[in-house]
Amino acid sequence: MDVMFQPGFLGTRAPLFMDIVSVIVALLPFLIFGAIMLAKKKNYTAHEKVQKLLFIVSVLVVGFFEYGVRMEGGYKNLMEGSSVSHDYLLYVLIFHIMISVVTLVLWIITLSRGNRYKKQSTLPGLYSQSHKVDGQRTFIGIILTMLTGAWVYALLFVF
Questions:
Q1: 3-state class of 58 per DSSP?
Q2: How big is the CA angle at 137 (ends 40 and 17), to the nearest 5 degrees?
Q3: Distance from the CA of 87 to the CA of which of 51, 96, 98, 102 falls in 20 to 30 A?
Q4: 1-12 b/e with 16+ CB inside 10 Å = b?
Q5: Among candidate residues 24, 22, 39, the one with its CA nearest the CA of residue 136
Q6: Mean pLDDT of all residues in 120-128
Q7: Cβ contact 148:95 at 8 Å
Q8: Contact, 135 vs 36, CB < 8 A?
């Protein structure tokens, strides 16, 4: 597993695992958008399967990220090469974590309500509008998670 701590491929100070996670997170909103387009085309079964797959992959990626951060010595070791103030970096990191946790909760709610709604009616059905609103909130959260994650990455490994 030492290979995951080698220099990454994005040309920054980041280790390989961080570059891998960053690229996956940067692609996630586009993949989610594709899943949303499946629902718009009334391919609800594919929409459901892709959304669940993306959720599972995202949770695994976060686990991989957390493992890498811990094995690398934690946040303090990762920020050593940054010229950004520790306090500023910490505030941005806390902001990112808050958005990420809220988004995770929203995503879980959206998936679980989607399952419940599917069981209670035909698609599209009685609860389609509320599921759509849940999904829109989750999608915004995923975009914000990606943007704040890129902000943290830049502060840690570019500046």
A1: helix
A2: 95
A3: 102
A4: eeebeeebebeb
A5: 39
A6: 65
A7: yes
A8: yes
How does DSSP classify residue 77?
A: H
Write the DSSP assignment of 89-148 as a string of letters: HHHHHHHHHHHHHHHHHHHHHHHHHHHHHHHHSPSS-TTHHHHHHHHHHHHHHHHHHHHH
Rounded CA-CA distance 38/32 in Å is 10
With 90 as the cut, is the pLDDT of residue 134 above it?
yes
State the pLDDT confidence band at 46, using cuts at 50, 70 and 90.
very high
Contact 70, 26 (CB under 8 A): no
CA distance 13 to 153: 10
Question: Across the strands, what pairs with 57?
Answer: none
* 98 vs 74 pLDDT, higher one: 98
- Answer yes or no: are the C-beta atoms of 157 and 13 closer than 8 Å: yes
pLDDT at residue 101 tops 70: yes
CA gap 147, 100 in Å, rounded: 11
* Beta carbons within 10 angstroms of residue 32's beta carbon: 22
User: pLDDT category, 120, cuts 50, 70, 90?
Assistant: low
